[in-house]
Amino acid sequence: MSKAPDRMAGVEPRGIGIRNPIGSTAVVVIAFAPQLVAIAAFLVRSILSIAPGIFGPFSISAGSTALVGFIADKNLLGLYSLPLVVIAIFTLFPRIKGPQDYYGGIVMIAVSLFALWASIDLAGQRGFSFGPGTAPRLFCGLLFLLGLAIAVTGLVTDGSPLQRFAVRGPLFVTLAIVFFAFAIRPLGLILSSILTFLIAATGSSETRWGEAIIVGVLLTLFCAFLFPYALGLPFQQLPAFLQ
């Protein structure tokens, strides 16, 4: 097994012109990750709609219409998915000398393209005044160029192979973000914040739960003061069933 060719590292299998099928497939998954997440969220929300008193009303027909509109969004497909599909096709063929840099650069490119799509509706610069979309698009451009430079470096310069990655950390951090998105309305800012922090803390085997609870409570109190009072944002503090 130790002598098996590492296709993601750019080692060419004998007699096959395609060198990096696994890496290319991973880039395709990244290219359609927003659509896949939207489908998963719709399925979860449909299941949770059986308890409307806790999670609020949900219309499956309206949700499915919104899902189809999101999946077919021309801006999302044109700005995010299509460029990454092109990168995925290109990834199939070259010998990648620094896989860690190459694929890391592609992830940075993906983040910049997604952020560019997310800020597309924000107004840009008007005359000498900066609009709310100016800074996000500027940072998106800088991140894209940086990711492109790192990817090219990994393509032409010998570098580190891909390292093994732990699933636990990214999994629980992602679950925490998704939980907060769904829980902020029914559970309110205070309860959803502390639970989100504890879910994220589960992603580390080195977590000390006494310290984690104390830090979580302090951060929750800070958020409960910052957003509604210091910034004047209309966040609901307590769960909906206590209002």
What does the model show?
The protein has helices at 21-31, 33-48, 52-55, 60-71, 74-91, 99-118, 134-156, 168-201, 209-230. Helix 1 packs antiparallel against helix 5 (74-91). The chain has 243 residues and is an all-alpha fold. The model is unreliable at 1-15 (pLDDT under 50). The N and C termini lie far apart (60 Å). Helix content is 66%, strand content 0%.
Oligomer: single chain
Uncertain segments are 1-15
Distance between the termini: 60 Å
What share of the residues does DSSP label as strand, in percent?
A: under 5%
Largest beta sheet, briefly? Answer: none
Annotation, overall tally of beta strands: 0
Dominant shape? globular
Structural class: mainly alpha
Average of pLDDT:
83
**Helix content range:** 55-70%
Rg, rounded, reads 22 Å
Note the total helix count.
9
SSE order in H/E notation? HHHHHHHHH
Keywords:
9 helices, 243 residues, single chain, disordered N terminus, mainly alpha
Q: Secondary-structure blueprint of this entry?
A:
Elements: H1 21-31, H2 33-48, H3 52-55, H4 60-71, H5 74-91, H6 99-118, H7 134-156, H8 168-201, H9 209-230
In short:
This protein is an all-alpha fold and 243 residues long.
